[in-house]
Design brief:
- The chain is an alpha+beta fold.
- Helix content is 31%, strand content 20%.
- Helix 2 crosses helix 4.
- The two termini are 22 Å apart.
């Protein structure tokens, strides 16, 4: 995706390390976590080590939401790993990467 390519180019700076304790426990009941994918990720140190992609919170230094990496983070959580890496997209530019659907003939 466009935002991932920007992160890989270094547009948001280097990935940052965070303590897993800043994240809530995974919510399996919401239905968007694929348990088979999580199990597969737990077997790959390469996948587990890939930084997640997060959007900065208006409160500097905090994460508002994740754009990519929920399954990797859940795998790390289940393995009781202490930390994770993430590229943090500044809130001031995240809007540039949003995908919006506009009905034909309608203005944004």
């Amino acid at each position: 995706s466009k935002i991932q390519r920007a992160a890989d180019r270094g547009d948001f700076g280097p990935s940052q390390n965070f303590d897993m304790s800043i994240l809530p426990a995974p919510r399996y009941d919401l239905g968007f976590l694929d348990k088979a994918k999580i199990e597969a990720f737990k077997q790959s140190s390469e996948i587990l080590g890939r930084p997640a992609l997060a959007v900065e919170s208006p409160t500097h230094g905090h994460i508002r939401c994740f754009v990519d990496g929920q399954h990797r983070l859940t795998a790390r959580y289940e393995l009781n790993l202490r930390d994770f890496a993430a590229f943090v997209v500044p809130i001031s530019v995240e809007r540039n990467f949003r995908i919006t659907v506009v009905e034909p003939g309608k203005n944004r």
